[in-house]
Fold this sequence. Notes:
Helices cover 10% and strands 23% of the residues. The chain has 1 helix and 5 strands.
Amino acid sequence: MERAGTGDGFGNGAPGVRGLPGCLKCGPVELQPVFDGEITNFYCDLCGSCWHFESGYVVPVHPETCPGCQLEEVCRERVHA
Length: 81
């Protein structure tokens, strides 16, 4: 797990959805919320990564852990490419 960054300490955080720090691979980009029926994760349109943010930590989400997500097929294709 990695600790999610929140900015420079002066209120100048990276732009993102709902105050999230953005994609750990692409930087401060807008992430799309996706729901798998149980939890909400955040998808990066640029690199195809999906992330889960909780309690100040961020973890990558593997497609096999979220059946029912509207982007499940897109994620599976990315992993098997």
